[in-house]
Every structure is written in structure tokens, then in C-alpha cells.
Amino acid sequence: IGGHGDGIYNTGDGTLTVQYSTFSGNSAGGAGGGISHVSGSGTLTVQHSTFSGNS
């Protein structure tokens, strides 16, 4: 969306939880090759996950 967050793009006031995941080789034209979290009051939690080769 708009070149951001090729792996996951999260926006709004919700809750995003990522567990036991691998984000590899994602490419975004803007920010967040692996994850882009754009939120005023939402939360992002990442546990036991691997990020590699994202841009």
C-alpha cells in the first residue's frame, strides 16, 4: 500500500501479534520491507520471529 510493508502492512487502532514467523526477501518501495506498522494507538507485538534480507 503506497510502497510500504511488503510483508505485512498494519494501520489503524487494532492489535497485531506475530509469533513464530519468518519474513525474508520482502521489498517495499517506501518503508517496512518486512512489516510497516502505522498507528496512532494500535499495538504491534513480534515474538520468536526472524527478519532477514528485507528492504
Write a structural description.
The protein is mostly beta strands and 55 residues long. The chain has one domain (8-49). 0% of the residues lie in helices and 44% in strands. It has no helices and six strands. It has strands at residues 8-11, 15-19, 22-24, 35-38, 43-47, 50-52. It is flat and about 30 Å long.
In terms of topology, how is this protein built?
Elements lengths: L7 E4 L3 E5 L2 E3 L10 E4 L4 E5 L2 E3 L3
Parallel strand pairs: 1-4, 2-5, 3-6
Overall tally of structural domains: 1
Radius of gyration: 11 Å
Tell me the major beta sheet. Answer: 2 strands, parallel
- Mean pLDDT reading: 79
Distance between the termini: 15 Å
Based on secondary structure, the structural category is mainly beta
H and E order: EEEEEE
Spans of at least 5 consecutive residues whose pLDDT stays below 50 are none
Shape: flat
Total DSSP helices: 0
Strand content: 35-45%
Strand order of the biggest β-sheet: 1-4
What fraction, in percent, of the residue positions are helical? Answer: under 10%
Q: How many beta-strand elements?
A: 6
